[in-house]
Amino acid sequence: MAPNKQSMEILRKEFDIHKPTVYVGVWDYLSNYSPSPISEETFEAKHQIAYAGNLRKSPFIYSLDAIPLDFAVWGEGIEKKLPQNVHHQGAVMPDELPPLLNQCSWGLVWDGPYIETCNGQLGTYLRFNNAHKCGLYLAAGLPLIVWKQSGMAHFVESHQVGICVESLRDLPSVMASLTKDQYLAFRKNVLHESALIRNGHYFLNALKRAERKNLTLLWRKLQPMEAGKDVLLVPKYLGEALGYNIHIVCGYDKETIQKMPAECLERMTFIKQPLSFEPKQRIPVYMRYLLTHARKIDLLMCFHRKSETFINLLLYKCLNWRGKTYVKLDTEAGKEWDISTKKGITRMMHHLMNRLFLSCCHTLSCETEQGYQFLTQHSVYAKHFSKKLVLLPNAFDEEALQGLNIKERSFEEKENLIITVGRIGTSQKNTEMLLDAVKQIEWNDWKLCLIGTIEPDFQLTITRFFAEYPQLKERVIFIGPVYDKRKLWEWYNRSKVFVLTSTWESFGIVLTEAQRFRNYLISTEVGGASSLIQQGKYGTLIPQNNSKVLADKLQNIIIGEIDINVYECQSPTLSYSDAIKPLLNF
Q1: Residue 540: helix, strand or coil by DSSP?
Q2: What are phi and psi of 553, to 5 degrees?
Q3: Counting beta carbons within 10 angstroms of the beta carbon of residue 501, is it exposed (0 to 12), middle (13 to 18) or buried (19 or more)?
Q4: Which backbone phi and psi does 88 adopt, to 5 degrees?
Q5: Are the C-beta atoms of 389 and 367 separated by less than 8 Å?
């Protein structure tokens, strides 16, 4: 248990501590005192700011004459004369303090010698500590004033129970800007929190979360872009629906964890292991982790049908036979389960491994209708898959979109913009096909933006392309990688057309994102493209490696011969909260 969200992030980012952790939020303050709601009449009479604690470690109180506000202080340790606006109320027993504090209007959480900031050892302490003063003031019914860099700032802001300031010199102007309604709203929120804190809610709730069942994903080295992909979204939504703690066992560097969205760090625990992109290196790391932690894992999640997954499942079931397992196959057509081309002893060994693999799986899922139909109806293992396999298309993180408050553009508000998103220049993404089509088009006022990391070897191709077609520099723009989710989704939000020229995809998550923002889809027939396009309703399929057909489609869009305003209202994209529901029935 960590005191608060910021302390948990400090432990992870600065001290590289990655054990499963929950944070309490605020220290409770058990009390029988019940503050009454403040009336508008009483509001006018309440002006004092309360401060209670060990006054020996609070020398800033002797500088409060620089703040034109009234302060009441409780505690021992007065060492010299107080300013005229600071009134010492003596030292009282903890049970007697809440009703006395309630006569004030605010509770101040501050430490150290200065009113400008909380620095030194006490300032460092405040960055990660839950000050007991917070629980005390809230129990007494007071809104809080806290240092903006303190560990309590997140709680105060997220629960709307007070204000955060960088310096106490800011208090007069901040308070002057508050309306009566805003202050009364703080008091109302404080009364709600007061009832919880006086009954020990926050500690007991953290204890309950610490004792919840655990969903653990074994992954390789984590990449920043995976925060918005199924790698993290499926365990996040599934774990939350089940009420489980979510642990991601993976490798990562400091830069990756710093780029993770705050809500990922808050909802999931990233357990750092020396994992890379090399399968042979990963297997012993997984084995060591399972030997130590298997009995604490209630649901083990893995990706893909491969040797390391098989070893993980087998070892886990040997160590924790009551535990459940879920494998997300991430397959395009399910052909990796086809043993018809195998002969003799090789066929027999593959068959036995596949049977044992399936026996270790409680549930599996695949992304495409094509793969689901093959595995449940036509594969050698159809009988097994029909009982364990769920069709789970890669969906959209609707919750994240709502949290970002992006104003979605109507078709008329969108720009004449075509985009593609992916690893530019890889053989899989087949960017050459797109550039070849670009040469054949009259662009008028349209533009093409290519978003994503650019393969080093492909830079020469780009240089040659613009040397040969310099007139396209203003029409074809390489944006580079966009890791920030808001900025990436704004590209989809601005564009009218999305193009995917991949040679293969297990699903194609970028198509889901593009459809959510009502882009007309042009894609090779890979992954979930045909399901999303729905026989031409939301776009068009193009042949592999046929830049002429792609150029013709884009040209017809540019000159208006193809109607791309195909979404009547909302897009038909599935949200993850709905997509994972079939998993809950297994």
Answers
A1: strand
A2: -65, -45
A3: buried
A4: -80, 125
A5: no
How far is 35 from 53, CA to CA, in rounded Å?
Answer: 20
Name the one residue in this structure whose structure tokens are 């599996």.
Answer: 364
Residue 363, pLDDT > 70, answer yes
Q: What is the pLDDT of residue 45?
A: 46
Burial of 242 (0-12, 13-18, 19+ CB in 10 A): middle
- Range 470-495 average pLDDT: 93
Structure-block tokens of residue 82: 């107080």
**What is the tens place of the pLDDT at every residue in 97-156?**
999 999 899 999 998 899 999 888 888 888 888 989 999 999 999 999 999 999 999 999
Q: If 0-12 CB within 10 Å is exposed, 13-18 middle and 19+ buried, where does residue 80 land?
A: exposed
pTM: 0.69
Query: Rounded to whole angstroms, how far apart are CA atoms 87 and 74?
Result: 9
Is the per-residue pLDDT at 323 higher than 60?
Answer: yes
586/582 Cα distance (integer angstroms): 7
Q: 72 and 49 in contact (C-beta within 8 Å)?
A: yes
The confidence band for 256, taking pLDDT boundaries of 50, 70 and 90, is: confident
Sheet holding 389-391, edge to edge: 269-272, 245-251, 214-221, 299-303, 324-328, 363-366, 389-391
CA distance linking residue 111 with residue 122, whole number of Å: 6
Distance CA 337, CA 415 (A): 44
140 and 101 in contact (C-beta within 8 Å)? yes
Count of C-beta atoms within a 10 Å radius of residue 443: 18
